[in-house]
């Protein structure tokens, strides 16, 4: 009888334990014997199909690209085919999904792909059934090959050869580009699937936009026509456009340098121009009337030298007559500082301006200072004349200090800053002067009203005037 040493017996025992452990791990983990025999760690879901679509037992089941189970069995039913899916426990798969049968390769290797519609539905559980409406199978490869053969047979052989040759010429050597195109299309499809709900909402809400494009088709066609005209003009003036582009860079650099040089003072200038713009907006009517009357006044000035035209006396200038009328009328003193408060004209100092408004406060129809502040027309109130903006904007009328030629009343009236004096109670103020009637400049006919109240016509100011007029000719009367 053979007696083994104790050491060998211990080694054999250890080897036996290791062998049994490896076999147990192999059958439990890799072969998954408990799951195969007893369904441990798995649950089953039934999938209804119109036909098998090449699906077989032990086929893979995937969810978001990962294997989550196997096809346990495929069997016939009265209405089609049922496939029992054995899925791994611990992986929550939404029950609101679509199950599709796909082929891994052209020769078969079908598998089931689970595509959830949303992630908020409850997960699948043991015994659930995926209805026929939520499943699909790939088309029959035989039908596809038959249709392809039929299509190829319908194409003449020479034409088919031409198509193949031209296709090779078109895509020959474009393997990497086509690969990138296909990969990009796949990424686009994946992103579209991830954003399926916004994409569907966009498609549903696109109809009003498309309808608006249909309704504005004429405008779009007109815009396209105008764009074609612009591009044609650009092509016709290609050299000029190219010159503009070539010289535009240096010109912009010069403009940049100019802006950098004027940067310290430009904001101040623009701020001042804002004030000037506000004043010009307020006096828009006056500026327009001045520009309209200016050619006529310029013609009157030229009439002064008409007598010397083409003579040796032309250098003597205009024929003007000056009449020296002293104190006709006398200077206005009402509303100004009294004589004892006036400064001597020889003084060279510059004291602060006295408080209050200093202007000739005599009646509007007085011959004194007829162009004084009291007769300035109110810009915002047509027909009204007042010496201050405050009085123009109010409902009050101008009231003079007195109707004499000399100072009367409080000699400090204008220094104390008091308001314009009002009439005593019971005294009715003189009616406001009648508004001045004026005809606006008519750009269609070139007619306007001069300062003398007569109507004048400047034909070359009308809209029908020649467009080649220069600014110098616009300043001259007609026929000059």
Report on the architecture of this protein:
The protein is an alpha/beta fold. It contains 12 helices and 10 strands. The strands form 2 sheets. The protein has an 8-stranded mixed β-sheet, with no helix packed on it. The longest helix is centred in the N-terminal third of the chain and has 25 residues. The radius of gyration is 51 Å and the shape is elongated. The N and C termini lie far apart (151 Å).
Task: Report the mean per-residue pLDDT as an integer.
Answer: 77
Distance between the termini: 151 Å
**Rg computed from alpha carbons, rounded to a whole number of angstroms:** 51 Å
Strand line-up of the largest beta sheet: 7-1-4-3-2-6-5-8
Provide the low-confidence segments as ranges. 414-424
3D shape: elongated
Quickly list its features.
alpha/beta, eight-stranded mixed β-sheet, 40% helix, 480 residues, single chain, two-stranded antiparallel ribbon
Question: Secondary-structure map with pairings?
Answer:
Layout: H1 6-30, H2 33-38, E1 42-49, E2 60-63, E3 66-76, E4 81-88, E5 97-105, E6 108-116, E7 129-130, E8 135-136, H3 141-154, H4 157-171, H5 175-194, H6 196-215, H7 217-236, H8 238-262, H9 266-282, H10 284-303, H11 389-393, E9 447-449, E10 455-457, H12 471-474
Parallel strand pairs: 1-7, 2-6, 5-8
Antiparallel strand pairs: 1-4, 2-3, 3-4, 5-6, 9-10
Structure summarized in a few sentences:
This protein is α/β, with parallel strands linked by helices. The protein has helices at 6-30, 33-38, 141-154, 157-171, 175-194, 196-215, 217-236, 238-262, 266-282, 284-303, 389-393, 471-474, and strands spanning 42-49, 60-63, 66-76, 81-88, 97-105, 108-116, 129-130, 135-136, 447-449, 455-457.
């Amino acid at each position: 009888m053979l007696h083994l040493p104790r050491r060998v017996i211990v080694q054999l025992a250890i080897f036996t334990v290791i062998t049994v452990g490896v076999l147990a791990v192999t059958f439990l983990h890799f072969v998954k014997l408990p799951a195969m025999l007893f369904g441990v760690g798995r649950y089953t879901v039934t999938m209804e199909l119109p036909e098998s679509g090449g699906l077989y037992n032990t086929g893979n089941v995937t969810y978001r690209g990962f294997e989550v189970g196997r096809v346990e069995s495929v069997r016939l039913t009265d209405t089609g085919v049922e496939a029992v899916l054995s899925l791994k426990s611990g992986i929550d798969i939404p029950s609101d999904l679509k199950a599709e049968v796909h082929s891994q390769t052209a020769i078969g290797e079908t598998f089931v792909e689970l595509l959830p519609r949303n992630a908020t539905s409850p997960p699948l559980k043991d015994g659930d059934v995926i209805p026929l409406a939520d499943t699909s199978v790939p088309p029959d490869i035989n039908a596809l090959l038959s249709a392809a053969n039929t299509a190829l047979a319908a194409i003449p052989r020479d034409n088919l050869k031409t198509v193949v040759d031209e296709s090779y010429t078109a895509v020959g050597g474009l393997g990497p580009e086509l690969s990138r195109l296909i990969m990009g299309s796949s990424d686009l499809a994946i992103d579209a699937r991830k954003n399926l709900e916004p994409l569907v909402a966009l498609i549903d809400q696109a109809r009003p936009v498309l309808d608006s494009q249909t309704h504005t088709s004429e405008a779009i066609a007109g815009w396209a026509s105008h764009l074609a005209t612009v591009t044609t003009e650009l092509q016709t003036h290609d050299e000029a456009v190219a010159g503009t582009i070539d010289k535009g860079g240096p010109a912009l650099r010069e403009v940049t340098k100019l802006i950098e040089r004027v940067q310290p003072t430009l904001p101040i200038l623009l701020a001042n121009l804002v004030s000037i713009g506000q004043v010009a907006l307020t006096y828009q009517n006056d500026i327009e009337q001045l520009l309209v009357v200016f050619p006529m006044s310029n013609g009157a000035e030229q009439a002064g030298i008409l007598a010397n035209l083409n003579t040796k006396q032309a250098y003597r200038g205009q024929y003007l007559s000056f009449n020296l009328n002293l104190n006709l009328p006398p200077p206005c003193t009402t509303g100004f500082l009294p004589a004892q408060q006036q400064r001597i004209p020889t003084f060279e100092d510059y004291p602060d301006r006295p408080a209050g408004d200093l202007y000739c406060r005599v009646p509007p129809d007085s011959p004194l200072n007829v162009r004084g502040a009291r007769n300035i027309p109110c810009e915002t109130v047509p027909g009204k004349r007042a010496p201050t903006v405050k009085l123009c904007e109010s409902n009050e009328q101008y009231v003079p200090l007195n109707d004499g030629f000399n100072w009367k009343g409080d000699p400090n009236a204008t220094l104390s800053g008091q308001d314009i004096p009002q009439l005593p109670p019971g005294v009715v103020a003189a009616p406001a002067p009648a508004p001045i009637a004026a005809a606006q400049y008519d750009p269609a006919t070139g007619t306007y009203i001069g300062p003398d109240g007569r109507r004048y016509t400047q034909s070359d100011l009308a809209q029908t005037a020649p467009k080649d007029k220069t600014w110098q000719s616009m300043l001259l009367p007609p026929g000059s």
